[in-house]
């Protein structure tokens, strides 16, 4: 009894192992970029020469299940194709016999995200699942643009998928989520995301805004060094604008009122009174007015 049990146990594990090895090679994940074609690869060329007889059917179908594509009795058949996949699928009929059961989906739509396609081969009413391909849909975020006004900085990026958080870094510190106000909108047409994030900044701060795409493992970022605030620039202008004419004005006043400004200083330095230059000036004026005298 004991020997028999052990045998069964081994057989069970042997079967399980074979199945799991085969299925893991059949499973694949691909990345599809929105608006571009994606190949759902299914390479069964390692199988015994698949010399398909006439009674061969191949189905590409998702898990709902909806039919993406059908190859039946030597021809492609569109009668059962789901409308969602209409005009978007291509197979290489010449390569089916050599085991290339790949399907091209073009263009990728945001709603294809996480589409899992099974490739089922039916020969003489015996069916086998050949491949299972899952599509992860993605789109690159654009390099963020930074708009600085009134000590707030707005970082904007658009056209990305899937949705992800914007991260801010300044002087080697990552800002906490509550320090930013983020707004995300999904484009109803393409399904891509526009993200804008706003933070308060300080003068001279070197601040970087980044957006990461987890599917593409891609980071887009941009940075800015915050200039001096507007109020202070204005204040400086005001001071300069007011100060320059004041200096000129005071100089003029002083010149007019004290034509001999050095006189009091002389008085202070030398204790003895000096001849009055004002009188001399007046006399000279009179002399000029009356040249005959
Ligand atoms: C598929 O393409 C044909 C011809 O270009 C067009 O008439 C039809 O509306 C398209 N169908 C879909 C579902 O896009
Ligand atoms: C299989 O066919 C697709 C087109 O449907 C092609 O792009 C791909 O390179 C082929 N793969 C191989 C291994 O030949
Ligand atoms: C920057 O933001 C200001 C105020 O929100 C806006 O008026 C301006 O058009 C924006 N500039 C750009 C280039 O987006
Ligand atoms: C930035 O932080 C890293 C560790 O988080 C540290 O090793 C590095 O010295 C810091 N650089 C500056 C310029 O502070
Ligand atoms: C930025 O500053 C304003 C005014 O001081 C404040 O109301 C706002 O909450 C701040 N924003 C953030 C994200 O901290
Ligand atoms: C996203 O941004 C693009 C480019 O700025 C713009 O054309 C589009 O209208 C925006 N979509 C939404 C839903 O805000
Ligand atoms: C600001 O930070 C960015 C990113 O860390 C760096 O590349 C850039 O040289 C810095 N600029 C200045 C002026 O410090
Ligand atoms: C993501 O990209 C970085 C460099 O750009 C690389 O070091 C890292 O290994 C990548 N991660 C994955 C999971 O591919």
Automatic annotation (TrEMBL):
- Residue limits of the Ig-like domain? 151-225
PROSITE patterns for the chain: IG_LIKE
Superkingdom of this entry's organism? Answer: Eukaryota
Gene Ontology CC: external side of plasma membrane
User: Where in or outside the cell is it found?
Assistant: Membrane
PANTHER family listed in its UniProt record = BUTYROPHILIN (PTHR24100), ICOS LIGAND (PTHR24100:SF151)
Gene3D superfamilies per UniProt: Immunoglobulins
The membrane spanning regions, by residue number, are: 235-258
GO MF term set: signaling receptor binding
- Signal peptide: which range, if any? 1-24
Q: What is this protein called?
A: Ig-like domain-containing protein
An example GO biological process term is: regulation of cytokine production
Instruction: Give the InterPro entries listed for this entry.
Output: BTN3A2-like_Ig-C, Ig-like_dom, Ig-like_dom_sf, Ig-like_fold, IgSF_BTN/MOG
Q: Which UniProt keywords apply?
A: Immunoglobulin domain, Membrane, Signal, Transmembrane, Transmembrane helix
């Amino acid at each position: 009894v004991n020997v028999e049990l052990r045998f069964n146990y081994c057989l069970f594990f042997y079967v399980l192992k074979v199945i799991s090895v085969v299925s893991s090679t059949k499973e694949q994940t691909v990345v599809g970029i929105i608006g571009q074609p994606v190949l759902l690869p299914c390479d069964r060329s390692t199988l015994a020469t698949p010399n398909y007889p006439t009674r061969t059917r191949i189905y590409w179908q998702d898990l709902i299940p909806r039919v993406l594509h059908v190859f039946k009795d030597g021809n492609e058949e569109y009668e059962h194709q789901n409308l969602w996949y209409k005009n978007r699928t291509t197979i290489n009929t010449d390569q089916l016999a050599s085991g290339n059961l790949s399907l091209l989906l073009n263009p990728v739509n945001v709603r294809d995200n996480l589409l899992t396609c099974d490739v089922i081969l039916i020969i003489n009413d015996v069916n086998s699942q050949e491949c299972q391909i899952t599509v992860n849909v993605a789109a690159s975020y654009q390099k963020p643009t930074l708009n600085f006004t009134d000590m707030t900085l707005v970082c904007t990026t658009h056209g990305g998928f899937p949705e992800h958080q914007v991260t801010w870094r300044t002087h080697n510190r990552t800002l906490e989520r509550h320090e930013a106000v983020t707004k995300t909108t999904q484009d109803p047409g393409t399904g891509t995301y526009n993200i804008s994030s706003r933070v308060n900044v300080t003068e001279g701060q070197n601040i970087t805004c980044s957006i990461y795409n987890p599917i593409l493992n891609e980071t887009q970022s941009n940075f800015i060094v915050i200039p001096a605030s507007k109020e202070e620039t204005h204040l400086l202008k005001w001071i300069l604008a007011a100060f320059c004419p004041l200096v000129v004005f005071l100089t003029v006043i002083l010149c007019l009122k004290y034509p001999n400004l050095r006189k009091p200083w002389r008085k202070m330095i030398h204790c003895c009174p000096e001849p009055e230059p004002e009188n001399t000036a007046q006399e000279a004026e009179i002399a000029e007015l009356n040249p005959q005298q």
